[in-house]
Amino acid sequence: MSEITKEQVLHVAHLARLAITDEEAEKMTKELDAIIGYAELLNELDTDNVEPTTHVLDLKNVMREDEARKWIDREDALKNAPDQKNGQFRVPSILD
Amino acid sequence: MSLFDYTLKELQEKLHNKEITVTDLVDASYARIKEVDDEVKAFLTLDEENARAAAKELDEQGGDNPLFGIPIGIKDNIVTKGLRTTCASRFLDNFTDPLYDATVVSKLKDKKTVTIGKLNMDEFAMGSSNENSAYFTTRNPWNTDYVPGGSSGASAAAVAAGEVFFSLGSDTGGSIREPAAFCGVVGLKPTYGLVSRFGLVAFASSLDQIGPMTRTVEDNAHLLQAIVGHDEMDSTSADVEIPNYTEALKQDVKGLRIAVPSEYLGEGVSDEVRESIKAALKVYEDLGATWEEVSLPHSRYAVAAYYLLSSSEASANLARFDGVRYGVRSTQAENMIDVFKYSRRDGFGEEVKRRIMLGTFALSSGYYDAYYKKAQKARTLIKNDFDKVFEDYDVIVGPTTPTPAFKVGEKVEDPLTMYATDILTIPVNLAGVPGISLPCGFSSEGLPIGLQIIGKHFDEATIYRAAHAFEQATDHHKQKPALGGVKG
């Protein structure tokens, strides 16, 4: 059944925006393989005619008026930021 | 006799008759923390100056509601305005000034409770032992070699140790009930949607619920009453009529129909736990309730379905921790994508990374149908099991955990063994129904054993009724751990 490879783990780590070392990738390959292997227990179930459950309650879309409301001001929004400048979050350059 | 020997009702009488003040209660709380928290290690952050000022103000104002002036602890994944909120993660180590209160915190402030501090947990609520905290491992007050459970381990331990009168925890796959069982306190996971999740740092949004942790069932009902209700800030919060939970306690359990799933007393459940549950069923018989064995045939698939679904949701929810708007940013990164990658590498612990990876994998192209969607279908089958049993029975009763607390370090090496700890609590979250854990005995090693009572959607009242009747017929809840040389 499932055989997770180190290459897959490195790819998933990139998708998840996690930097991992080669050593960590090897450890995680084993662990994920064991967990996924266990999860394949679900293949015993015949689910052809079963609807998936995304939510247990009958939820309806909740709508509200599209109007501006006071929430937090700019100064507050920035006060926990690792870096800021001129009232904005500052990050390294996105384009080379 | 310490103030912690009284119920909320008794404390309110004493406050009302001016035998004690709110300041006395807050003093007692901090004194007890100074006495035992070196051993228990429940608190990540204390808010002593503000709590004492609030107590003084409340003493001047006066007031009477069941929660007035009561010192509480709050799990550190529930946002508190101006009070450090870390989720026990290095990523949020510097998140000292949150901008708003979670809805449950605002509701408790309206009831004039006093927040003593923030309680340790498994990082981002991922864990069953508190060993995944990035800071330190909270200990079980009954024996500090043992874990308090998780992820709301410190919320349970602080109540059991008499550091606060009650606390708030959160439960995604058992994170209130398992530690309540391990620490010998009462913990309720409400029906999904009953309590607003606004301000609860999201782990798995279709499963997470905040709930009360207390010494007694009656206290638990009072605390739940204060935090329930529709909230326009949480679009999954249910707009349902709220019953009077403490009124429900007055009813007896004559004629109550109890279902006992054979899967919950089977393989993996220790003899001592099984015997305690059988003794509990005998108590119910004597009280006039009836019980029959039933089957929840898809129980064995719950852990696998849960880890795929909760990790998938977590991988999406934790994408917000990017090192841009709050939290710790890696100083090594020179471009944007490395800010994300390095900050998350440095900020997240091993278990959190493992689950993000599992979830990202299960949602990734080519695997979505085989894993994520398959797990959602398994969830339907598990939910149907509960619906079917509840056609003929009022509550489901069984153990909360297969064994009492295990030793610190015993299960850290093997994620799958740790995950199996929650085998009896996870199905409840998948079905979205409410469940409580309350003390029903002790192991030969003196560790508490928890009785789990599961109810129909939004039928917390019947759970409380059943739990209260059992509690009042027994004295397990009156036992206290010996800590700091003095019984709490």
Gist of the model:
The complex is a heterodimer of chains A (96) and B (488). Chain A is 34% helix and 4% strand.
How are the elements arranged and paired?
The complex is a heterodimer of chains A (about 100) and B (about 500).
Chain A: H1 6-15, H2 22-39, H3 74-78, E1 84-85, E2 88-89
Antiparallel strand pairs in A: 1-2
Helix pairs in contact in A: 1-2
Chain B: H1 8-16, H2 22-40, E1 43-46, H3 48-61, E2 71-75, H4 103-110, E3 114-119, H5 153-160, E4 166-171, H6 177-183, E5 186-189, E6 209-214, H7 217-227, H8 245-248, E7 257-261, H9 271-286, E8 290-294, H10 302-317, H11 336-347, H12 350-363, H13 368-392, E9 395-399, H14 415-420, H15 426-431, E10 435-442, E11 448-454, H16 460-473, E12 482-483, E13 486-487
Parallel strand pairs in B: 2-3, 2-4, 7-8, 7-9
Antiparallel strand pairs in B: 1-3, 4-6, 5-6, 5-10, 9-11, 10-11, 12-13
Helix pairs in contact in B: 2-3, 5-6, 10-12, 10-13
What does this structure look like?
Chain B: One of its GO terms (cellular component) is glutamyl-tRNA(Gln) amidotransferase complex. Chain B: It comes from Terribacillus saccharophilus. Chain B: This is Glutamyl-tRNA(Gln) amidotransferase subunit A. The complex is a heterodimer of chains A (96) and B (488). Chain A has 3 helices and 2 strands. Chain A is mainly α and 96 residues long. In chain A, strands 1-2 form a two-stranded antiparallel ribbon. Chain A is flat and about 55 Å long. Chain A starts with 5 loop residues before the first helix and ends in a 7-residue tail after the last strand. With 488 residues, chain B is α/β, with parallel strands linked by helices. Chain B is 39% helix and 13% strand. In chain B, the strands form 2 sheets. Chain B has an 11-stranded mixed sheet with strand order 1-3-2-4-6-5-10-11-9-7-8, with helices on both faces. In chain B, strands 12-13 form a two-stranded antiparallel sheet. In chain B, helix 4 (103-110) links the parallel strand 2 and strand 3 (114-119). The mean pLDDT of chain B is 96. At the A-B interface, helix 1 and helix 2 of A face helix 10, helix 11, helix 12 and helix 13 of B.
